[in-house]
Design a protein that fits this description.
about 140 residues, mainly alpha, 434 Repressor (Amino-terminal Domain), 2 domains, 8 helices, elongated, Helix-turn-helix transcriptional regulator, Cro/C1-type_HTH, Lambda_DNA-bd_dom_sf
Length: about 140
Amino acid sequence: MTDIEQKKIFAKNLLTLLEKNGKTQREVADSISVSPQTFNTWCQGIALPRMGKIQKLADYFNVDKTFLIDPEPLSEASDAPYYLNDETRQIAQEAFENPELRTLFHVARDIPPERLKAHIEFMKSLKAQEKDDPDEPC
């Protein structure tokens, strides 16, 4: 694949993610610490970001970086929202955009396995409580 083809694929996939997530170029550029001009060159297929910025974009949109560089259109699975409930989706997005809470989305990267298992068990117990009595606060 030529460099020009790769730039076009990346630009198309990036624009698709922007549209699907209702984000502007400036919003995302600010979030990943690049200038709006640089971000725009990516969207126009003029330049490709380095892999570190591709990873930041993937993290921002909560997708695998292959979604940005893959020549195939984004799969149908990516069309479906991760959160099924609109209110849950909005709360999760707000938490992700809050720098103090964003670490919740990355907790599994370097957490020891026993702590990760404890977190999972805690989440399961909350879910079980919800099924037993949805009106009872956790």
